Amino acid sequence: MRVPARIAAGCRIWSRQPRSLILVLCGCSVSGRGMQRYVGCAWGHRGGRWATTTLAMASAAATPSLLVSSSMLTTSRYCTTTSASAEVPAQGDDGNAVVPHLKQDMEALETLRSIAPVSSTEEIQAMIKSAKNAREVRMVLERIVYTHHLCFDLLNGHGYRVAVLQTLTAVAPHASCMHEWFDCVARFRRLGFMLTRTYAAEGFTTIRQWLSREFLHRGRSPSLVTEGTTHIKELMQWCLEDRLVFDHVLYTRIVFLLTMIVSYLDRQNLYRASFPEDFAKRDGIVVEWIVTNERCVDFDECVLQCDAVMEELLEQMRQDIPSRPPFSFMYRLADYYFATDNVEKMIAVMEDAESYGVSVAESTTAKLMQMACAFNSPQVPELLLRWRVLPPQCVLATPDVSRLLFFYSRSGGGLPCPHCGEPYNHRNVSVYCWLQTPPHQRQCPALRKARVQKGELEESRELPQNADWSAQAFGLFELSRARAIEWTAVEWRGFLLCCIFSPRAMEAKALMDQHLDVTEMDDFLRAACIRLLRHHAPAEAWPTLKKWKQQQCNMSPIALQEALMAASMVADAATRLEHMKAVWQLLLEKDSYVMPLTRRFYQRRMEELAKSYAAAAGGDGKESQDDLATEREEAQLMQRVVEMQPRHVSLLDMKDSAADFVVGTRRKNVYRPR
Predict the structure, then answer these.
(1) Which of 604, 611, 562 is CA-nearest to residue 583?
(2) How many beta carbons lie within 10 A of that of residue 81, not counting itself?
(3) How many angstroms separate the Cα of 141 from the Cα of each of 135, 136, 152?
(4) Model pLDDT, residue 87
(5) pLDDT, tens digit, for every residue of 63-100?
(6) Which residues touch 470 (CB under 8 Å, ≥6 apart)?
(7) Global pTM?
(8) In degrees rounded to 5, what are phi and psi of residue 253?
(9) pLDDT, greater one: 27 or 345
(10) What string of DSSP letters covers 533-557?
(11) How many whole angstroms separate alpha carbon 565 and alpha carbon 538?
(12) Higher pLDDT residue, 297 or 152?
């Protein structure tokens, strides 16, 4: 095959200019008569292929150690050009002769592709789509997108920017590249790009995915509040500047995002937040205001900041949309105030929804009653009648009964604190209620005892939650029978707690034994049952525990604590010692522990028994050897209980009563600052 004379001349010229050739291969512009002569020729594919082959061979000979930048190497693997184009000029002038150097031509083309930067928009879009995480997206943006000649071209680059941002918006949610998306939008908006409703909606979706990923990897991080609310307000401001039509759908998305932030910072997500590192981990320990009576400062601050954003959002919505909001927005708004523990605002939202002609969801009314009963709200009966009995979409069910039972037995039935007069009996966890609480109510002795000795507080008859609520409990039982409402272990536990300080306590236990099978009882119901027997029939505690053991029921440490205290209250000395030894042996078999409440109870009981033995010995001056042996063995056993140290130090050993912890199944998160 003959080589054209002009191509051969061009190759001789380039062979004398190796430096210029290296610059050509690296993508730089070269000025020279040889380059001008080659560029000016119009020979089609044939001349181009020969020139490419010559360039590759000359570059391999002149620069064997050619250095290529990392960005070019990174982009080469995403190059979408196929080798089919190289096979087009594979025939000679007559159409039959095959080119003998086809393999070398292919290698030369691959070499050029490996060092040529990505230039087409399709290739850049493919690279963005193939990114798996925020780091890869950031590398593509910084090395490819922002260095492209069309990126910041004000006249010709709008189509390029739109294509890139469309691809980035589609990738951003699952790649969790919220910061990269906001940075790209901010750069392109300075060049005339305007947001549309689709971009705004996908931006909020990107924020939602980032919040989920941040909480999954870092737990209750402050960045959830700071960066989350900042980006929400920034995107809202962009929409206002671009005169975007902000409808109820976008407002609903923002309310949902704020609800997510508050829920992630909630106390329920605390796990070993304020305990030393040498404590063994126990899954499911829930630390909250109802249990520990300690303020969760980061959650309070989160609620205050999110409420400020919510007020701005509602004010903007009143100005933008004069029409009534739909059901979805009112539902999400009520759900937000449920997450922030704001009963008053939640009731106001539900009343506004009724005034707009929007029906309130049944789940929203259930959440309202759950919060009102837990916070010991005095208007619980009125709220129940209005929001759970009268609405046609609501039907009284098992959860309503359990909430009412615990409203009386745990919260206090709407009565104030007897020591300081706090209207909610220290049960309202709202940050606004706490900010309005005067200092003397914050330092209430009952509240202080609830933090360190909750078990003693549970035995105090002067508190409203320990009053005689048997009339309400039996009334709810009759109501449930009339409406065919099924009771589970939770309802029966609330029923026993209402009757535990009542003369009808044993009647309540007999009613439970009649309607509930032993195998359906949970650990907390067994503990409540043994606690009731401790107050009214301590001699029945161990036989009941023995019967449960024979039926292969789970012997929880909570029930064993109550049984250990109940055994020490038996009147007969021999029976008391026998029951104490049996329960103690079972507790050791379970490798359980002794709560501080049980330890203090046994110390007081030892003093009482010592006084009674001294009084009995001083009365007639005679004691049998069996009585002395029983007294001595009993004292030794009770001393072992008081001095007992657990083999493994656990978080549960710091608890003071069975009500101090709630057993769950999911591991909680806590943010530990570095």
Answers:
(1) 562
(2) 14
(3) 10, 9, 13
(4) 40
(5) 333 333 333 333 333 343 333 334 444 444 444 555 65
(6) 498, 499, 502, 503, 504, 505, 508
(7) 0.75
(8) -65, -40
(9) 345
(10) HHHH-GGGHHHHHHHHHHTT----H
(11) 9
(12) 152
Mean pLDDT confidence for 342-353: 96
Helix (H, G, I), strand (E, B) or coil at 91: strand
CA dist., res. 359 & res. 41, Å (int): 78
Residue with tokens 């508050």: 262
Phi, psi of 98 (to 5 degrees): -95, 140
In this structure, how many other beta carbons lie within 10 angstroms of the beta carbon of residue 126? 15
For residue 161 the two structure tokens come to 């920017």
pLDDT at 630: 87
Give the dihedral sign, CA 250/253/255/257.
Answer: negative
Model confidence band, residue 280 (pLDDT cutoffs 50, 70, 90): very low
C-alpha–C-alpha distance, residues 528 and 497, integer Å: 7
Structure tokens belonging to residue 327: 């059901």
Helix axes 197-218, 158-175, angle to 10 degrees: 30
Q: Is the CB of residue 332 less than 8 Å from the CB of residue 340?
A: no
Lowest mean pLDDT among 262-276, 282-296, 358-372, 419-433: 282-296
**Rg, the chain, Cα only:** 39
Q: What is the spatial distance between Cα 366 and Cα 27, in angstroms, rounded to a whole number?
A: 68
Return the closest-CA partner of residue 559 out of 547, 570, 571, 573: 547
Spatial separation of the C-alpha atoms in residues 269 and 219, rounded to whole Å: 8
pLDDT for 117: 61
The reported pLDDT for the residue numbered 293 is 58
Cα gap 262→298, rounded to integer Å: 10
Tokens at residue 104, please? 């070398």
Strand partners of residue 35: none
Distance in angstroms (rounded) separating the CA atoms of residues 672 and 674: 6
Q: Centre a 10 Å sphere on the Cβ of residue 570 and count the other Cβ atoms it contains.
A: 20
| Coil, helix or strand at residue 98 | strand
DSSP code, position 165: H
Query: Would you state the structure tokens that stand for residue 107, as one six-digit string?
Result: 């290698």
Is residue 362 within 8 Å of 394, Cβ to Cβ?
Answer: yes
CB atoms within 10 A of CB 95: 6
Q: What is the mean pLDDT of residues 7-30?
A: 42
